[in-house]
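Question: I have long wanted to understand how a fold can be written as C-alpha cells. Here is the record:
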Amino acid sequence: PEFWEGGDREGPGTMADKWSDQIRACGLFFISIVVLMIIPLVYHCFVFLTALPLWETQPASCVILLICFHTLFLLLLMSYWKTIFTDAGGVPYELDEAWISELNLANRFGLEAEVSERVSEVSETSPLTVQSAERKLDGRQRYCRKCRKFKPDRAHHCKYCGRCVLKMDHHCPWVNNCIGFRNYKFFMLFCSYATMTSFYVALTLFTGFVNLLVQRRTIVFGWVEFEYLVVFGLMAGVSVVLTGFTGFHFMLLLKNMSTIEHVEKRDPTKKDQVNPFDLGRERNWGQIFGENPWLWFIPVGETRGDGVHWETNEAVNASAAQDV
C-alpha cells in the first residue's frame, strides 16, 4: 500500500535535505553566538563593570547583586546545557519493530485495513494493544513515510533531525535540538531563567542610568559606556521577547498542548475538538515538572512516562465515574 511504500519519501540530496543541513549549521552558529559572545559580554558588564565597583562604597549592595545574578546565571547555564544535550526522545526500537512486524504480516495476507483493529496476544503495555487517541481521518494509525514507522500519539517527524520525535513541540535553532518529551522541562526552565536574568540585568543597568541622571554627573562616552548601552539594549529586547514567548509556552503547558497541537487547532476541521490530553492544570504541571515541588525549578530529573502511552481525560473521567 501507498502508506507503506513511502511514495513521497525524499531521497538524499534533495532540497529538503540541504535545507535541513543548513538549519543544523545555523543551530551551531547560534549556540556559538550565545556561548562565545553574549554570555561573556553580559557577565563582564554586570560583574566587572557594575557590581564589583560598588565594593568599596556599598559592599552590601555588591554582595546582593552578585549572589542574585550568579544564582540566576548558573541555573540558566544548567538549563541551557540540559536542553542542548538531552535527547528529546525518539520512537522506541521495540515499538518500531512491533508495528513493522504487524504491518508486514497484515501486508502479506492483505489485511492492511485491519491492522489498527486487531489485538494480538501481547502484554498490556505493548503498542499493539494501546488505543491511540490520534488517528487519520480513515481511522488508520498515524504512519511516517520517511521513518517508515507508526507514530505514537503526539509524535511528529522533524525534518531537521531526520526522525520522529516523541511529543514534539518544535525544533529550536538556538539549542540545535528538538524540543520534545524528554527535554521540555529543561527548555521551559531555560526560557524562564533567560527571561529573569535578562530582566534583572536590564533593570539593574537602568537603575544605574537613572542614578547618574539624578546626580547630574557628567557622562564621558567611551568604550565602557558603549558596552553598557549594548548590553542594556540587548537584555531589554531579550526580556521583552522572551516574556511573551515563555508566557505562551506556560499557557500551552497548563493545557497539556504542544506548539504543533496548538497550530493544528487552527484547522477549521479541528478547532472544535477537545484536547484529549488535558488532565487539568495541576496534573498537566506535574506531568512536566514532576510531583516534588523542591525539584520543579531545578534542571534535574526525568519526565514521567515513556512518551508513547498517554493518559487521556476520557480515561480520567471514566475512572472518576466508577469511583462515584
In short: Confidence is low (pLDDT under 50) at residues 1-13, 113-123. The chain has nine helices and six strands. The beta strands are 143-144, 149-150, 156-158, 163-165, 170-172, 177-179.
